[in-house]
Amino acid sequence: MAPVAIVLWVTATGGSIAFGGLLSALYGLASSVAQPVKGRLMDRHGQSAVHLPAALLNSALLAALPLAGPHGGPALATAIVVAAGLTTPPLEAGLRALWPSVLPNPRLRHAALALDTGTQGVLYIVGPLLVAALASAYGPSLALDVTAVLGLVGTAVVAFAPPSRRWCPARPASEDAGRVRRLTSPGLVLLFISLTGVGFAIGGMNVWAIAMAEQHGQDMLSGIIPAAFSTGSLLGGLVYGHRSWASSTTGRLVTAGAVFLAGWLPLLALLGPSAATLAVAVPGALLTVLVACAYQSTDALAPAGRTSEAYAWLILSIGVGQSTGTALAGRLADHALAGAALPAAGAAFALIVLLAARPHLAPAGHIARRGRHRRPLSGRHKAP
């Protein structure tokens, strides 16, 4: 909700869509850059100790933006947005780290990860639509306030849930500690670089949707197009998680990258609102496969005791790409063809790097590694 609400607040208060896109990009970039630090803190101190303080600060800053922004001008608004981004709670990395302790069975984890990734699309369906509806009916300031409240309440639900409170990361064996604790293997580095292209495509699409809404005089398009993309992600997650796959995780990752690129190409025909809304559902469906396989590959390649941090670097990669795509799309908002081409450009970059990374990624047989996380047994934290 937050990036869309920020753009709508800027434009409603007299700012340009380019400045709104810049602020939205800065929010996403700040959030992404801080993820590895918060992931490392979770690996050391647990999840609740990181989630709750971050959520309190983030919500307070988002709620303060409509109050302080007009009085302090662009500089103060920028400072508040960056600070809010830096304090976003690392919920996604934390949630992905919980699955091995909640579901020790590798096959169940495969299904859960796919459903997790796909059903997160519900947030991206409801979120932009809710922001657009609130901003249209009551103004973007209320939309920001609702975003702040929901963020705080949602984080509290996660942080106080038993799996999150009890979770402890695994520790590497002493004889391996000095050898395996680095996160710089070629497979991980190339995987993370490729995911910046995926994020770039998403960021470009979000601002392109707002430009489409302005071009056609249909305010709700700014929420409907991202919602259609997320609907595709939800359906893709349901299909992908429903069955077992004989191909390797790496093979599925590359194939999904190729179809993800193909799904963006129809936008180059400068489709109308209805056709464009339907078209974005196709790459949305492949996003779930890409992200789920990326998490599986990360789990295979990351050293024990640093899994949350590795997941956070994955999220950082997507976030950096998304912020870059958002900022560039804001600059190109007046150029219809260029704006429509940005998602395909990001997807093409992702596929090229994935092809280069393929020899360095773990095969499917190595994905299910045991002993990575601790799970509670008889009320105590013991390594399985």
From TrEMBL:
Location within or outside the cell: Cell membrane
Cited Gene3D superfamilies: MFS general substrate transporter like domains
Main location: membrane
Residue ranges of domain Major facilitator superfamily (MFS) profile in the record: 1-166
Gene Ontology MF, one: transmembrane transporter activity
GO terms under cellular component: plasma membrane
Top-level taxonomic group: Bacteria
Protein's membrane topology: Multi-pass membrane protein
PROSITE patterns (alphabetical): MFS
UniProtKB keywords: Membrane, Transmembrane, Transmembrane helix
Transmembrane segments: 6-29, 50-69, 75-99, 111-135, 141-161, 188-211, 223-241, 253-272, 278-298, 310-330, 336-357
One matching Pfam family: MFS_1
Name of the protein described by the UniProt record: MFS transporter
Species in which this protein is naturally found: Streptomyces finlayi
